[in-house]
UniProtKB/TrEMBL annotation:
Protein name (database record): methylated-DNA--[protein]-cysteine S-methyltransferase
Active site: C42 (nucleophile), C323 (nucleophile)
InterPro entries xref list: Ada-like_dom_sf, Ada_DNA_repair_Zn-bd, Bifunct_regulatory_prot_Ada, HTH_AraC, MethylDNA_cys_MeTrfase_AS, MethylDNA_cys_MeTrfase_DNA-bd, MethylDNA_cys_MeTrfase_DNAb, MethylG_MeTrfase_N
Species annotation: Rhizobium grahamii CCGE 502
Catalytic reactions of this protein: a 6-O-methyl-2'-deoxyguanosine in DNA + L-cysteinyl-[protein] = S-methyl-L-cysteinyl-[protein] + a 2'-deoxyguanosine in DNA; a 4-O-methyl-thymidine in DNA + L-cysteinyl-[protein] = a thymidine in DNA + S-methyl-L-cysteinyl-[protein]
Protein family per UniProt: Belongs to the MGMT family.
Cofactor-binding details, from the entry: Binds 1 zinc ion per subunit.
Keywords: Activator, DNA damage, DNA repair, DNA-binding, Metal-binding, Methyltransferase, Phosphoprotein, Transferase, Zinc
One Pfam family named in its UniProt record: DNA_binding_1
HTH araC/xylS-type domain location: 112-185
EC numbers, comma separated: 2.1.1.63
Cofactor: Zn(2+)
GO molecular function: DNA-binding transcription factor activity; methylated-DNA-[protein]-cysteine S-methyltransferase activity; sequence-specific DNA binding; zinc ion binding
């Protein structure tokens, strides 16, 4: 069996595009093309009309393509593989009939499948579980195209809300869970705003940002509760100058105009070690990444890689403290609280920002 290559061992995107034009089978199973204008990903041997170079992205796995919001092509069918286990093909066929279905383990059992058997079969064949594939297919169905080709996830659909008012009501319930701990202290205010990656929730006092997270982060309710207990304050819906500032800075960031964040951050929720790690993360330049071990060595203690990982996971200032710029020692993407598809999007976006900046500097 050919040993699977990592994305970073493959030729550059220009060489892969040449292979796509030639319909070369040299990278079959090792590289896939994602087409920005259609939201589809294909094998390089796909017989479909070839996209323009600027409309293509190349990834090394089906999982990464789907995590980035792309749907499998119905002509070259990149999820199919000769000689694969029948259970995989059966469930993929069922998923093709209704890509927006919300599958659960109970659905598998009702269909006569053992969830553990299904999980192992899909991991062997595609490197991800069937339930993950079903979830990413739903994301792909809900996706829309941005003008620059990036993927937009309709957060309301993904969250299960049929209307904006439903999401706003859920936000109010989330904030309303807070215990009344203000004790004559200033209230923390919370508001949410739309981004290309779905709504983000910001919590701040008048001058400092205390929390910035994607709305669907599972840890968000616990983070809000911890924040209120730590500050002995209550979170109420509303805006402050700090929220207005971070909203404006995020708009500039997502528009590709600036990656500079100057909103003051309240980092008292972290330990001294965690704050030290976060400051190191903020030193990583836009368009670059670091491994966990790199941060540990910068802190002059190579033995604390796991502790760095825990501190990274404790960050509750998404994007501003750029924990998405940390990757595995082998160059692979690692866990991200907002979802790997968001991490992939952010790294791609920042790489494009860096390229544009260097082009401008070159002209000058």
């Amino acid at each position: 069996m050919i040993e699977r290559l990592m994305l970073f061992d493959l030729p550059d995107d220009n060489a892969l595009y040449d292979a796509l034009i030639a319909r070369s089978a040299a990278y079959e199973g090792l590289a896939y093309v994602c087409v920005k204008t259609t939201g589809i990903f294909c094998r390089l041997t796909c017989p479909a009309r070839k996209p323009k170079r600027e409309n293509t992205l190349f990834y090394d796995s089906v999982a990464t393509c789907m995590q980035s919001g792309f749907r499998p092509c119905q002509r070259c069918r990149p999820l199919e593989e000769a000689g694969r286990e029948p259970i995989v093909d059966q469930l993929l066929t069922a998923l093709d009939r209704d890509p927006a279905a919300r599958w659960t383990e109970d659905d598998l059992i009702a269909g006569g499948y053992d969830p553990s058997t299904v999980r192992r079969a899909f991991k062997r064949s595609l490197g991800m579980t069937f339930l993950d594939i079903a979830r990413y297919r739903r994301l792909g169905e809900a996706a829309k195209q941005l003008a620059n080709g990036a993927r937009v996830i309709d957060a309301q659909i993904e969250a299960g809300y049929e209307s904006g008012s439903g999401f706003r009501a859920a936000f109010q319930r989330l904030i309303g869970k807070a215990p009344a701990l203000s004790q004559k202290r200033d209230l923390l205010r919370a508001d949410w705003f739309e981004t290309p990656l779905g709504p983000m929730v910001a919590v701040a006092d008048q001058t400092h940002l205390h929390l910035l997270e994607f709305h669907d982060r599972k840890a968000l309710p616990a983070e809000l509760d911890k924040l209120q207990r730590k500050t002995r304050s209550t979170v109420a819906a509303g805006r402050t100058p700090a929220i207005e500032q971070i909203d404006a800075e995020l708009k500039a960031y997502f528009d590709g105009r600036s990656a500079s964040f100057r909103t003051p951050l309240a980092l008292g929720f972290g330990t001294a070690f965690e704050r030290q790690v976060w400051l190191k993360l903020m030193e990583i330049p836009v368009g670059e990444t670091r491994a966990y071990g790199d941060i540990a060595r910068d802190m002059e203690n190579p033995q604390i890689v796991r502790a760095v990982g825990r501190a990274n996971g404790a960050n509750q200032m998404a994007i501003v403290i750029p924990c998405h710029r940390l990757i595995g020692a082998d160059g692979s993407l690692t866990g991200y609280g907002g979802g790997l598809w968001r991490k992939q999007w952010l790294l791609r976006h920042e790489n494009e920002m860096k390229s544009k900046r260097l082009s401008v500097e070159g002209i000058q």
